[in-house]
Design brief:
The structure is a single chain. This protein is α/β, with parallel strands linked by helices. 61% of the residues lie in helices and 10% in strands. The chain has 22 helices and 12 strands. The protein has a 6-stranded mixed β-sheet, sandwiched between helices. A 4-stranded antiparallel β-sheet has the order 2-1-4-5, with helices on one face. The chain has a two-stranded antiparallel sheet with strand order 7-8. Helix 19 links the parallel strand 9 and strand 10. Helix 9 runs antiparallel to helix 10, helix 16 packs across helix 18 and helix 18 runs parallel beside helix 19. The structure holds adenosine-5'-diphosphate. The site of adenosine-5'-diphosphate (ADP) has 11 residues, from helix 13.
């Protein structure tokens, strides 16, 4: 919390101070009317002396008419001042609280975005979303409400007590004797309420995760007709929240009337003792004369005691919420990003595209900075001792069974993850020594799942090359065989794709992704099953464009269909993280190993693999 105040509060402290002052002025101004009313009753209506706390006697007119007008004026002025100060406070306090929230949110997002892929592999979307939305909101609630309410609480209690003690210390003692009782009651309430508030917070989180999960998985729910099951799970989570909320509220609604009752006791005591005093003179002979006006002021102010005190429960709740939230927010901000540009990183200029993998090994491990601090090196190595190279302009096919580590191998080139051992160099520079920006500028990537942002087709092609000319976008789309289908869409390049691009087929999305890379014009191309989502005809078209695209640049092509990489300059066959074979298509067929086997299967020669037929055919 201190960090929140220091980092984000300090730049906006003016707003905070103005808000605080506005609040104090509003509170104190609102105390003026009952005090002036009491003084006016004594001074004007009953012909006594008209005196006010903190106001020099010289300011108060002497004549009855003058005093009456003065009292009316001061009371009216106090209301106007209260309104004005409340307005100032409202604007300033919200400017402060929402401004801080905005800064925290953007900072948090920026920091989060810089985190390693490994972080995102590990986290649920809902978890990260809730840090960015509800946690920052909790901070805002605290900064706005809790902070100002606690100031008001302090000001009211001290202000009222001060005035009462000034007017009549003995009667004030009668009124205030109940305050310690209220404090004890409040402390008891906070103790008992705390675990209930915590339980309720957990239930809210639980329900949100459930809902988020259910909505993301709605397709699975529908296709398996599991709606009742899903509703049941949401009902359970919702009911738990209901129960926890009720358990909290039952206590809160015991506390509030309890406080009011205690205030009532103070009121009755003040009224009883004060009334007796008015009629029979000072009780037990203690104290001076009590004027009826003072008595009226007492009665009014005693009632004003309760509301701010009853706020204590809310303040405590908001404070606890904010504390938990700020721990989560700063926890996220403090996770170190391991994959980042080094201090003395150089920019790759005009890369040629010579890529060398030198004895590279890699294992996925836990997210950095995770609670147990484990670095998980013991986990299964996904890429093991891989050495291979691609000269500028060469195409290297990467094949092998699912899970062999093909995607991982190429993600290491882009530094989505960093190698554990060995090194990858681009034009002789270790990829860890060049700036990430220039590295990713030099390497174009088309993955298996093509993500499109909500926006127009043109915007999606432009992504990463913002501000490209319309002509360049069209040119790229043509090269990616996408121009034709785009122009057939209702709004052509201005057609909006829905969230996640669901309104386009897999093949169409793929071609947009390829157009994006064409526009990027990188020295090195990484195609990870880029044609996996398309039919044979489209594949042929895309293949043609990819061939043209990779003609004069280095390309790594992961392919399930071996025909895609048949003409590559070299092919590496990966199995269980290791290169088991390498060579050209013909050489690999001659080697008669894993590649030849896969080729045979895909060529429809399935028998070749199965039993005795194999050797027979081989002999032919
Ligand atoms: P391929 O592309 O050859 O199918 P991958 O590189 O995708 O293989 O995966 C290789 C292995 O690494 C698999 O066992 C897979 O389960 C594991 N793996 C892939 N991605 C991750 C990840 N983000 N976190 C942990 N393990 C992963």
């Amino acid at each position: 919390m201190r960090r929140l105040a220091r980092t984000y509060g300090t730049p906006r402290k003016e707003w905070f101070v103005v808000g605080l002052l506005g609040n104090l002025v509003a509170q104190f101004a609102s105390l003026a009317p009952p005090v002036v009313l009491g003084a006016a009753i004594d001074g004007v209506l009953r012909g006594g002396t008209f005196s006010l706390p903190l106001v020099p006697a010289g300011w108060i007119p002497t004549g009855t008419d003058g005093q009456f007008l003065f009292a009316v004026g001061v009371i009216g002025g106090a209301f106007v001042l209260t309104a004005l100060a409340t307005w100032v406070y409202g604007v300033a306090a919200n400017e402060f609280a929402h401004g801080v929230m905005h800064d925290v949110r953007v900072d948090c997002f920026e920091k989060m975005q810089a985190l390693d892929m490994a972080f995102f592999d590990d986290k649920q979307t809902g978890e990260v979303m809730s840090i960015l939305s509800s946690d920052t909101e909790n901070l805002e609630m605290f900064l706005d409400n809790a902070l100002t309410n606690s100031v008001r609480l302090g000001a009211m209690v001290l202000g009222i007590a001060g005035i009462l003690l000034y007017l009549n210390p003995v009667l004030a003692a009668v009124t205030l004797i109940i305050v310690p009782g209220m404090l004890v009651f409040t402390v008891w309430f906070m103790r008992v309420a705390e675990p209930r508030y915590a339980r309720r917070r957990a239930s809210v989180g639980n329900l949100n995760t459930r809902l988020e999960n259910a909505i993301s998985g709605v397709e699975l729910t529908k296709t398996t007709a599991s709606e009742p099951y899903e509703t049941g799970r949401v009902r359970d989570a919702s009911y738990r929240l209901f129960e926890d909320t009720m358990s909290m509220l039952r206590l809160a609604y015991f506390y509030r009337p309890g406080m009011e009752l205690l205030a009532g006791v103070a009121f009755v005591a003040t009224f009883g003792v004060g009334g007796y005093w008015l009629v029979y003179g000072p009780p037990l002979g203690v104290g001076r004369e009590l004027e009826i006006g003072t008595f009226v002021t007492f009665v009014f102010l005693t009632q004003r005691f309760v509301t701010p005190l009853a706020e204590v429960s809310n303040i405590v709740d908001q404070y606890e919420n904010a504390k938990a939230s700020s721990e989560r927010v700063f926890g996220l901000m403090d996770i170190p990003a391991r994959v980042r540009s080094s201090e003395d990183a150089v920019d790759l200029t005009d890369p040629e595209g010579r890529v060398v993998y030198d004895d590279v090994s890699f294992a996925y491990d836990g997210i950095p900075g995770r609670a147990d601090g484990a670095e998980g090196r013991g986990e299964e190595t996904v890429v093991r001792d891989v050495s291979t190279r691609a000269e500028p302009g060469e195409t290297v096919g990467v094949v092998g069974p699912t899970g062999a580590g093909k995607s991982t191998l190429l993600k290491l080139l882009l530094r989505l993850y960093d190698v554990d051992e060995g090194a990858i160099t681009l034009d002789g520079h270790d990829v860890r020594d060049v700036s990430i920006e220039s590295l990713r500028d030099a390497v174009g990537y088309v993955g298996q799942d093509t993500f499109l942002f909500d926006g127009t087709i043109a915007e999606n092609i432009e992504y990463g090359r913002f501000g490209a000319s319309d002509e360049a976008v069209r040119e790229a789309a043509r090269a990616a065989e996408a121009h034709e289908f785009i122009t057939q869409l209702p709004d052509g390049y201005e057609t909006r794709v829905g969230e996640r691009g669901v309104k386009l087929s897999g093949g169409q999305r793929q071609r947009i992704a390829i157009a994006r890379v064409v526009l990027q014009d990188p020295a090195v191309l990484v195609l990870d099953e880029a044609t996996s989502a398309v039919d044979t005809k489209t594949e042929y078209l895309i293949q043609k464009s990819l061939d043209a695209l990779s003609e004069d640049r280095t390309a790594f092509v992961i392919a399930h269909r071996l025909s895609t990489v048949k003409d590559a300059d070299g092919i590496v066959v990966l199995d269980d993280g290791e290169i088991v074979e390498r060579g050209t298509h013909e050489e690999l067929l001659d080697q008669d190993g894993l590649y030849a086997g896969l080729w045979a299967v895909q060529a429809g020669d399935a028998e070749r693999l199965s039993g005795e037929f194999g050797s027979q055919i081989a002999q032919d």
